[in-house]
Structure formats: structure tokens, C-alpha cells
Design brief:
The chain is α+β, with helices and mostly antiparallel strands. It is built from seven helices and four strands, in the order H-H-H-H-H-H-E-E-H-E-E. The protein has two domains: 3-61; 73-179, H-NOX domain (Alpha-Beta Complex), CATH 3.90.1520. The protein has a four-stranded antiparallel beta sheet, with helices on one face. Helix 1 (3-17) packs across helix 2 (19-30). It starts with a helix and ends in a 10-residue tail after the last strand. Residues 182-189 have low confidence and may be disordered.
Length: 189
């Protein structure tokens, strides 16, 4: 898994729960509180899962709730780090349509040894279906990222997950319907 997600998880945990909770969770997940994550490195998916589990135990929040909140937290920060990916798009629909190409390019450039999730996009009645096939099975994180992306573009989003990798499906499929009644997040600064 890409290191930037680990560094953002650390930031989110410290902001929301405090440094003690983060370092206790880090010690449980890795065996030491001295682990330092680097954004441009890659780490085992299982380590991320152990961190989420440890944070869940310390905060009494379900892992799915933590992952969704983390996705909401992470999207604008990822957009700030990689403005070229979002700046070229005027809507969430356009962003999702272009994501499989731009994400593959970014991953190959910055994380050449990391497995790139397979993404597919198709137009369906009144919206789109967005499917992610990844061995991670972090559906709630994807849901939070999608909601964060909708907020970034100032759109409301109705989301329904019709397939789930954690239930044995070949990927996670989200059916999305968009609106324009939300207030967009401040883009930069």
C-alpha cells in the first residue's frame, strides 16, 4: 500500500484522537512506537489493516467508520499533493472517468512496484457505476474517498455499494448519482 496513506492516517489519528492514541496503536500494530512512514515508500496492506484495527480498539469506533472518516479526511489532502489529477476535471463524474488513466500513471511513476487497483467506470441510469478491484478490500475507505471527492467538486452524492470484495465479489462496485447542491471545499489554501 502506498506510503502517503500511512502518513495521512498518522496525521488524521493525531488530529482527531491525539498522539498517545496514535503511538499506542502504532506500537500494537508494528511492535514499536518508533516506526516512521514515508509518503513515497510502500508498505504491506496487512500493516495498514493492523493499524486500523488498533485504532478501532482505542477509539471504540468500528473499523468501517474509521476508514470512511479517513477517506473523507484524505481526499482533499491527496488533491493538494497531486493537483494535476483533480485540476483538469470540472466535476466528480469527469474525475472518476479519468481516474483509471491518471491513477495508473501516477502509481507507475511514484510507486512502480506497487499493485495498481483495477478501476472501471460505466454510465448507468442517472449516474455511473465505479468498480475497484483491489486485494485490500477497504470498501469503507473507498466510500469515504468518493464522498470526499464529491465535497471537493461541490456535488452531493448518492452512493450505493452493490458488490463487495470482502463478501467475495471480484471487486467493490459503487453506483453513484450526482448533484450540484453542495458547497465545494476550498481548492487551495
Amino acid at each position: 500500500m502506498i506510503g502517503v496513506l500511512f502518513t495521512l492516517l498518522e496525521d488524521a489519528a493525531k488530529e482527531r484522537f491525539g498522539s498517545k492514541v496514535w503511538y499506542d496503536a502504532l506500537r500494537e500494530a508494528t511492535g514499536t512506537f518508533e516506526t516512521v512512514y514515508v509518503a513515497h515508500e510502500t508498505y504491506a496492506d496487512e500493516e495498514f489493516e493492523r493499524l486500523i484495527h488498533a485504532l478501532s480498539q482505542r477509539t471504540s469506533l468500528a473499523q468501517e467508520e474509521l476508514l470512511r472518516a479517513f477517506g473523507l479526511y484524505a481526499f482533499p489532502r491527496l488533491a493538494h499533493r497531486h493537483p494535476g489529477i483533480v485540476d483538469a476535471c470540472r466535476s466528480l463524474k469527469e474525475f472518476l472517468r479519468s481516474l483509471h488513466v491518471t491513477m495508473r500513471q501516477e502509481m507507475q511513476c511514484f510507486y512502480p512496484t506497487e499493485r495498481t487497483p483495477s478501476l472501471s467506470y460505466e454510465e448507468v441510469d442517472g449516474g455511473v457505476a465505479f468498480t475497484v478491484a483491489s486485494p485490500c478490500g477497504l470498501c469503507s475507505l473507498l466510500e469515504g474517498l468518493l464522498e470526499g471527492a464529491a465535497a471537493w467538486f461541490g456535488e452531493s452524492l448518492q452512493l450505493r455499494q452493490s458488490r463487495c470484495a470482502r463478501r467475495g465479489d471480484p471487486g467493490c462496485r459503487f453506483e453513484l448519482v450526482f448533484g450540484r447542491d453542495a458547497v465545494p471545499l476550498a481548492r487551495y489554501g
